[in-house]
Design goal:
mainly beta
Length: about 50
């Protein structure tokens, strides 16, 4: 496993890139919104960096 990503409730992931997560968030009124989030890579204690 390379890591974990927490997403907002109602967000459905469609694509994960090297530095982004792309998906659709559905509002309380059932309206779909395309959203993209930037991934910030941080190293957790005890994890080593892949070669």
């Amino acid at each position: 496993m390379l890591g974990e990503v927490a997403t907002p409730e109602g967000f459905q992931v469609h694509q994960v890139g090297e530095d982004f997560v792309l998906g659709v968030w559905r509002s309380e009124f059932d309206v779909e919104h395309v959203q993209m989030y930037t991934l910030n890579r941080t190293q957790s204690p005890g994890m080593s960096t892949p070669p």
